[in-house]
Request: fold
Amino acid sequence: MIRFENVSVTYRGGVHALRDVSLTIDDGEFVVIVGLSGAGKSTLLRALNGLVPATAGSITVDGREVVGAGRRELREIRSQIGMIFQTFNLVNRTTVLNNVLMGRLAKVPAWRSTLGLWPAADREIAFRALERVGIVEKAYVRASDLSGGQQQRVGIARALAQEPTVMLADEPVAALDPVTSHQVMGDLRRINTELGITTLVNLHFLDLARHYGRRLVGLRDGELVYDGDIADVDDETFREIYGRAITPDDLLDEGAR
Ligand SMILES: Nc1ncnc2c1ncn2[C@@H]1O[C@H](COP(=O)(O)OP(=O)(O)O)[C@@H](O)[C@H]1O
Ligand SMILES: [Mg+2]
Reply:
């Protein structure tokens, strides 16, 4: 379970990126977070794994406090949180398999991986993760030789290889075309169902949010302004979260036409 209690984040320079946010997410939930650029979506995910320090409040993951945690504690908390990035963050000049094995770094001593001495058990976990996203046949291909959608699948497999209980995806489809975006969102959703991994996804496109989300959280200017079931969301909800009318740019399938 993830719990934010009265969390605020103020960056140096005085930007209030999160203001008094309280939010409880149960194990296995699939939560989509929307809001205009600058609303605080990335800050929310970064605060959860301690990449950005909360300046007030409490954030717990399975009862462990993130705010003010020491290095060792943070390492343990992060080892259970898989991250998926907009720009994939792969090491391009090495193989898909090596990229996925890097997900094991949180679990094994670093010297072993730097020498390329991955135990059979880790390789097995990596191959299973690649199977789950349907690209096991690419294991020995260089990451840079894959399409964007395939690279994001490697990103998902790398996060899975970590055997996380929580997955955080920060605009995972922002660099992808519409067809591939649907595939990647479908993968995340399926993995959530199959493995029960609690998943938080920041999304820009409202139609994707509506199609794949179960629970919707809306941020506006650092404040949590909506939290509810996706079934209860209509255009008015989005207008309130965005504070303006919805435009074709806010919709993946519209914007692509
Ligand atoms: N490292 C940082 N230093 C200072 N201000 C930041 C930093 N990161 C983000 N911000 C500011 O915090 C606010 C929220 O940003 P962010 O969480 O990235 O929003 P979103 O992901 O919804 O676009 C914005 O005003 C942004 O400019
Ligand atoms: Mg962001």
About this structure: The two ends are 40 Å apart (CA to CA). Residues 82 and 167 are 5 Å apart (CA to CA). The longest strand covers residues 16-25. Residues 11, 13, 15, 17, 35, 37-43 surround adenosine-5'-diphosphate (ligand 1) (CB under 6 Å).
